[in-house]
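Pinned message: reference record for C-type cytochrome
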Amino acid sequence: MKRLLLGLLVGVAVLLALVWYLNVRGEDKIDDSPPAAAPVAQQVTRGAYLASLGNCAGCHTARGGVPYAGGRGIETPFGILYSSNLTPDPATGLGNWSAGQFWRALHNGRSRDGRLLYPAFPYPNYTMVTRADSDALFDYLRSQPPAKQQNKAHALDWPFNTQAALAVWRALYFRPALYVQDSARSADWNRGAYLVDGLGHCSACHTQRNALGASSDMLDLSGGLIPMQNWYAPSLTSAAEAGVADWPLEHVVRVMQTGISPRGFVLGPMAEVVFNSTQHWNADDLRAMAVFMKGLVPTATAPPPAAVAVDAGKAQRGAKLYEHHCAQCHGDQGQGVAGAYPPLAGNRAVQLKETSNLVQVVMYGGFPPATAGNPRPYGMPPYVLLLSDADVAAVLTHLRTSWGNRAAAVSEVEVLKKRSGGAQ
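Predicted structure (tokens):
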């Protein structure tokens, strides 16, 4: 019995040592002295641009709050996480941080005091960011007006609120890394890969997550349902979803810069990304991102069904609802209006296997982002108070099976499940 107990203790000790090692590997000794001099203007300007690349303000600014002072609640399946104060206030923000400690947070996901950070802060992507970019971003943040705002305690369920559980998660799913140039690729492709994989953290939404909120491959970009938001981030490698391999390069640039293009438009969480981030990218980086996106290895997609059977009563109901509520903007044949209302005929967003986005748009409406290239976007009104679940199912089925569209019908139960999370 003593030998068995001793063996168990040794096994636990070895396991703990392994978890500890996997959490501190790749960490070099850092200078923990706060910078003595004010940041130079060139670094601040560069850091401001990097902050727009990463959309840092999007999470670290509460609605109506001081920019970068944190406090925004981020809902997860494990509870609510609150973003931290990134202003240079010494007591509650980054005022006593060093550039090395900030770099460690991005690269290793560890705070100034040694605490492990939750991956809602996307350090699994930011680990790719270079030290030079980290330093410029830090200089920009410490140039901001300090805001004395205490960080809110996370409201997470047990055991997810423990450092031990987070250490195990990181041991399983996190590996510090730096972006390595692919010598076989062009400079544009490499820059685009660095942006998409790193500060752009596109995989945070466009990659499927497991039950523990982790992805088996942070860079596969094959699409995934965004937790707690009831929006589906479509696959960037599938021509049937959001792949752009066959798009002209200028159309990829335009949709990321303005939110609309002749080949597509953005709504929902992606509209926020364009509004806060990509519309501010410079021309070279937009082009580089487009080159990378067009070069993604396409995934095979199943051919659409030859025909879709629809109940006659449901088909008639959907057609009438469409005529009454939709045809004025989207056209009798789903042709849309160029530059204003998107076509529904042949629209791959309408024919996605995952129907969450369609339900969200019909229920709660939406707008493309207001951008310099599209300052007054046309929007979709909400119908949550006008249409029942059965109505929504019928009209969506009409869209998905008319004008050459060949996608599965939508059931009333499916709509009920999709809307149960409410508007986000």
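Pinned by admin. Summary line: The CA atoms of residues 85 and 214 lie 25 Å apart.
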